[in-house]
Amino acid sequence: MSQQIWDWNYAFAILPLLLEGLGLTLVATVLGSIVAMVLGLVLAVLQRGPRPLAVVVRGFVELVRSTPLLVQIFFLYFVLPQFGIVLSALTVGVIALGVHYACYTSEVYRAGIDAVPRGQWEAATALSLPRSRVWTGVVLPQAVPRVVPALGNYVISMFKEVPLLTAIGLLDVVGRAQEAGDTYFRYVEPYTIAGLLFLLLSYPASLLVRRLERRVGTI
Amino acid sequence: MIVFDGVEKRFGDNVVLSDLDFTVAPGEHVTLIGPSGSGKTTILRLLMSLEAVNAGTITVAGRYLSHMEKGGKLVPADEKHSREVRKHIGMVFQQFNLFPNMTVRGNLIEAPTRVLGLSKDEANARAEELLDLVGLREKIDEHPSRLSGGQQQRVAIARALAMRPDVLLLDEVTSALDPELVAGVLALLRDIGETTDITILCVTHEMGFARDFSHRVMMFDGGQVIEDAPPQRLFSAPEHPRTKEFLKAVLERG
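Predict the joint structure of the above. Result:
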């Protein structure tokens, strides 16, 4: 191989592998986002629940937010097997990203819930609506649409954090780049392409979020 | 119909109502007047169990509202008991508080179907009938944001009536409205007062309305009823100096 800075032949040769890795990155992002959206909503609602439960949930959210995602990934991947729980790298990734981001999205949901006027709760109470219906029929339909852009931003952040999973051997796009580099001792092309692939997806996504923001107004 | 017995309500150190006793007969229309902070709205909020009493008891139609009987003793009411008693009480708020995520129809059929167990058809028929009453039948599929304040308040009144309440609480229902929209809402309330036998408790600054709508007017000051009389008597010949002062101030402003 010649010593030019950029080798197009090499770049094209490794592209299919990198795209395969990108597919895995997207799978981890989508599954992690689903966990984060659903669990975050549950955590937010529970924090409005009976006091002891709310305190426990609050404590959990603070714990997760105050520790690095990488430590959480390592804990799930290397510590849990000591207790007989062995999970694949992708499963660990989805759980770690999902739970970690759920603790952030729960704050977003909470802000959305807090922004629903008190009068709405009172009107629902005055009509004797059951608590569950107050949530599903009155509060969440008003709270959630307003926070969709903020949630979108967290999906984009999560997408860019998937490469942390290379630390436990997940062959996402950066994992594949690392593999190619280690095999051919050329790192410029694989990491550049990996970076460009992220840019190519993140940037349009953030433009989309900004358009959404303008439509729903921020809270 | 409604009995307050030794009711006390505090917010922190601030005593809003102290040792309050009064009774409202079935079908009676009672207006609460008094300076702001005198505890009028708190009474409505206690009746709607949006607040809990600190001492004393409230009964509605012979049932404890803030308490329930358990093993021969009075204990604070749980959520289920509160909801059961609340079903018979409707409330209309100053800020309307319609659900913006639902159409007018959705607002009107939500509680009848979910709480009273009416079928969709029954609830719809009731909604249409009530919208006829409030003169907004053609708005049934609009969202509240498309209605004027006066129209929203009329829908809110219809929403409260859709539960067929025995008691209706009106909390300064015209205070947030533009002046030209007030008359329509008051006319509707007069109509409801004449055509139904609902017991109505009303907090208002509309003294003209209070005079011809109520059977009784209670003047509040410092968490106490200081004067309780038929409107003709109370407005033309107030006895308590605080009542005189208050009416003078209100009439000058109006």
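Chain A has a mean pLDDT of 94.
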